[in-house]
Amino acid sequence: MPTTSTAPNDDFIWSDEYLLGFDAIDAVHEEFVRVVHQLLHSKDENLLAHLDEFAAHAKSHFDTEDQWMRETAFPPAQCHIDEHAAVMQSLQEVRERVVLGDYDVGRSFTRELVKWFPGHATHLDSALAQWMFKREHGGKPVVFRRQAASAQKAFGL
Ligand SMILES: [Fe+2]
Ligand SMILES: [Fe+2]
């Protein structure tokens, strides 16, 4: 279940703020956050294994989105597909360095993923989520995000 949380700047925790309203994308994005969070907190000796777990996730995640875009002739597909490919290319280069014991490169790549994801989700995945939702349900998704802090304030709790 999605939970709302306030993460410190160096952490990466799933938040309802990331919900886009198309369940299949939301589920895979929650998994992305879980795998990157694990990578962020990985010890050196586990970094390569966690990087490989991220690689498996990213391949499935990006391949699925790319396939949806191609199969449905999603209009702004190419820049989105190119961005996925750029992440996979960087991942491959980073993995080669981590294999040689350069853990700092793995850690900075992980921090870049944390910075990259919100913009990618907001600007590219959200359009795809709306497109896919509309194909399946005939309208735009309505996203209910928990507003715990503002609700508590509004109700004087
Ligand atoms: Fe995505
Ligand atoms: Fe994407």
Structure commentary:
- This protein is mainly alpha-helical and 157 residues long.
- The protein has a single domain (16-154), classed as Hemerythrin-like (Four Helix Bundle (Hemerythrin (Met), subunit A)), CATH 1.20.120.50.
- 71% of the residues lie in helices and 0% in strands.
- The chain has helices at 23-40, 44-71, 77-99, 103-137, 148-154.
- Helix 1 runs antiparallel to helix 2, helix 2 runs antiparallel to helix 3 and helix 2 (44-71) runs parallel beside helix 4.
- 21% of the residues are buried.
- Residues 1-8 have low confidence and may be disordered.
- The structure holds fe (ii) ion (FE2) (2 copies).
- The site of one fe (ii) ion has 5 residues, from helix 1 and helix 2.
- Residues 25, 29, 61, 65, 125 line the site of one fe (ii) ion (FE2).
Instruction: Give the overall silhouette.
Output: globular
Mean pLDDT: 88
CATH architecture: Up-down Bundle
Helix percent band? over 70%
- Main beta sheet, described? none
Low-pLDDT segments, ≥5 res: 1-8
CATH topology: Four Helix Bundle (Hemerythrin (Met), subunit A)
Which percent range describes the beta-strand content? under 5%
Report the CATH C-level class.
Mainly Alpha
Sheet/helix structural class: mainly alpha
